[in-house]
Amino acid sequence: MTKVSFYNIVLVLCVTLVIYISLNVYFINYLQSTTPLDDGVISHNAKSGSNRVKPAKVVQTRDAPSNAHIVQSAIMRTAGLLRPAFRNRNPKYVPIKHELLACVEPKPYNISTVWKTANSWPKANEVVPANERMVGALINAIATEPILRVRSSQRGTQLKLVFEFAQSQLVLFKPQWYKREEVINGTVYSGKDRHNSEIVSFHLAMMLNLRSSPIVAGRRFSLREHLPHTDEGLRKTMPIINDRQCVYGACYYCNRDEMVCDDPESGLLEGAVLYTIPGKINKLRSPWQRTYDSEILAPWEKNDNYCSVVRKKVSLETLLDLIDAALFDFLIQNGDRHHYETRDGRLLLLDNGKGFGNPYVDHMDILAPLYQCCVIRRATWDRLLLFSGGALTETLRAMNELDLLKPLLTKEHYDALERRLLYVYGTVELCKEKY
Ligand SMILES: Nc1ncnc2c1ncn2[C@@H]1O[C@H](COP(=O)(O)OP(=O)(O)OP(=O)(O)O)[C@@H](O)[C@H]1O
Ligand SMILES: [Mn+2]
């Protein structure tokens, strides 16, 4: 090699390095130029009215030895400045909406085949095949089929009942604890399961083509009438209080001071019926698990490069599954996915009861897997883009209206979903800028 060409190569390398460093400095400055207002309550002053993300209380990461709060502010700022493509309706959602409605619309079923058919659907983590119209038949079956036996579930920590239907089919029943308009304050994981969250989550997951949530339908049933079919263990936990039949069940958190009771007018107890996903399910600790202690930070809250730690431990497929789950959890605001469960190595969206607790708050750190890793499945991203500009609310509401327990959500929760969708768009746009 001649001396001249050697110096040329060194020169090119130096120039590349200087450009690389400048871009990084620019990006860090850009992130730091976004500042939260009023104690973490962010209002977005975008240029035009239609470009505004309606203010909500935003809970940002606690003071931590990481840049999380800076990144979260940048996400909110980007969400306030998104291009019209993210704010207008994409007409392509219309046929998808019609197909989804055709799938979940309750339909007649044949009791001698309905469970067998549904149990043949799951493939890895896909509980339902795409465009499977018979889902509506299964929904109708779990919402109306006579309940032959009732007992308390030993699984998980909260009160759940197990119903047995004809042909020995078992399903889980998560009872109603809260009224639709009740707002849960406190930490991101506060409160008990919301039965409506389980139903809405199933619909939302179907919309995002994440067909890995159990099939869920709303139902009301009479505790009193089913007493003769209730097992002894459960019956011991069923006092009558002020003429109402109540139940507190037998589980880790079950106790006499916290029970659900039938409605004094109808005499019925409301809840969500979850169809049992057949096959072996594995439970694993989530890499983004919280410490459930305000004094102690989890590893992911301390390290901006946490994704590289996770990347060494899980496959890319699992990481992408976890990111799908994170943006799904962010939309519903479930901050309690302490474990993730898999079927044939792929993630299931099980336990979605901690969503829709507070429509006025957005816990930004639920998005940590997305903004720390800056990767997302193409299919998920395309699907999210389909539901821009209010199509998410329109489609989800239409699906929710097909459920027996309609309305499932207040308007405030739909508004919150739209706002959070913009934050998800904002995160991905920011990632695109970054890389
Ligand atoms: N539809 C379903 N099909 C199959 N298994 C299920 C289904 N729903 C729940 N399970 C199993 O039961 C367990 C408990 O359910 P779930 O997590 O909803 O209860 P939980 O009381 O909220 O538990 P935790 O307190 O651990 O969060 C789950 O971990 C899962 O293994
Ligand atoms: Mn739970």
UniProtKB/TrEMBL annotation:
InterPro entries in the cross-refs: FAM20, FAM20_C
Record keywords = ATP-binding, Disulfide bond, Glycoprotein, Golgi apparatus, Manganese, Membrane, Metal-binding, Nucleotide-binding, Transmembrane, Transmembrane helix
- What GO molecular function annotations does the UniProt record carry, in alphabetical order? ATP binding; metal ion binding; phosphotransferase activity, alcohol group as acceptor
Annotated protein name in UniProt: FAM20 C-terminal domain-containing protein
Residue ranges constituting the FAM20 C-terminal domain according to the UniProt record = 244-434
Cellular localization per UniProt? Golgi apparatus
Q: Name one GO cellular component term.
A: Golgi apparatus
Q: Which cofactor does it need?
A: Mn(2+)
Q: Which organism is it from?
A: Anopheles atroparvus (European mosquito)
Q: Where exactly are the transmembrane stretches of this chain? A: 6-27
